[in-house]
Amino acid sequence: MAQTKSTPDAAPFLEVCGLHTHYGTSHVLRGIDMKIRLGETIGLLGRNGMGKTTLLRSILGLVVPSRGQIEINGQSVKGVPPHLIARKGIGYVPEGRGIFTKLSVYEHLEMAARPGARGQRDWTPERVYASFPRLAERINHNANDLSGGEQQMLSIGRALVTNPDLLILDEATEGLAPLIAKEIWSIISVIRQNGIGVIVVDKNVSAVSKLADRNLILVKGSVAFEGGSDELHASPEILRNFVGV
Ligand SMILES: Nc1ncnc2c1ncn2[C@@H]1O[C@H](COP(=O)(O)OP(=O)(O)O)[C@@H](O)[C@H]1O
Ligand SMILES: [Mg+2]
């Protein structure tokens, strides 16, 4: 499959400009700017409660920002409902997985499968089963019979069969055994090599920065650092102060 590595001057797939989001009177995002070109991998880092999930949920239309702009392929998605934002090419693996415990593995993937926004059909349920043989073994099991790691694989598989241009993963390795987490990291690496853009939120800074073309660190709803992984690791005080590692 062709690798669509982005060039620095390519138009962004996703552009977030001056974004503010509130929950009631609580002012959580305080003027976020972020651009992602097609095929780029962004690591989104920061301590608990800094606004990472809120930023992702704002992009997906699951919370309505109070100020600022979000554009996908140059078109504003302000006020567009989440399912239509997803159709513009965004796959979401939410914190806590969001799977339906009464549906089988097979049903999850069949229900979600569709061509991507550009008509691409690279990811089919069959390819997900080939990538995660554990899911193939459990194809007729209900999701609530799966282990945490298998549920996470299912959540990723369900996002992949929508053939996204950008895949967003929020704490996808949280609470998983190291060997299972490793499987998740290797599939994220495959996804990236296939030219799908990725935003990855994870506590494992070293795994994130190995994959990321750029890293953003959120502190209290603002971007406190943006830079490449070399730059990040060259500044241990940034990691210590803003990420806590
Ligand atoms: N549904 C909600 N209602 C009210 N406050 C929320 C809600 N979700 C998150 N928050 C608050 O918003 C802030 C940012 O949370 P979140 O975006 O989940 O951070 P992170 O993902 O970086 O841990 C926190 O102070 C959190 O308590
Ligand atoms: Mg979060």
Can you tell me about this structure?
The chain has 245 residues and is of the alpha/beta class. It has one domain (12-22, 35-243): P-loop containing nucleotide triphosphate hydrolases (Rossmann fold), CATH 3.40.50. The chain contains 10 helices and 10 strands. It has helices at 52-59, 82-87, 105-112, 125-131, 133-137, 148-160, 178-193, 205-211, 229-233, 236-243; strands at 12-23, 26-37, 41-45, 67-72, 75-76, 90-93, 166-170, 197-201, 214-219, 222-227. The strands form 2 sheets. It has a 6-stranded mixed β-sheet with strand order 6-7-8-3-9-10, sandwiched between helices. The chain has a 4-stranded antiparallel β-sheet with strand order 2-1-4-5, covered by helices on one side. Helix 3 runs parallel beside helix 6. The termini are far apart. 40% of the residues are buried. The model has no long low-confidence stretch (mean pLDDT 93). The structure holds adenosine-5'-diphosphate (ADP) and magnesium ion. Magnesium ion (MG) binds at residues 52-53, 95, 170.
CATH topology: Rossmann fold
On the 0 to 100 scale, the average pLDDT is 93
Molecules bound to protein: adenosine-5'-diphosphate, magnesium ion
CATH class: Alpha Beta
Q: What's the name of the CATH homologous superfamily? A: P-loop containing nucleotide triphosphate hydrolases
Query: In which range does the helix fraction lie?
Result: 25-40%
Unreliable spans are none
Break the fold down into its secondary structure elements and pairings.
Blueprint: E1 12-23, E2 26-37, E3 41-45, H1 52-59, E4 67-72, E5 75-76, H2 82-87, E6 90-93, H3 105-112, H4 125-131, H5 133-137, H6 148-160, E7 166-170, H7 178-193, E8 197-201, H8 205-211, E9 214-219, E10 222-227, H9 229-233, H10 236-243
Parallel strand pairs: 3-8, 3-9, 6-7, 7-8
Antiparallel strand pairs: 1-2, 1-4, 4-5, 9-10
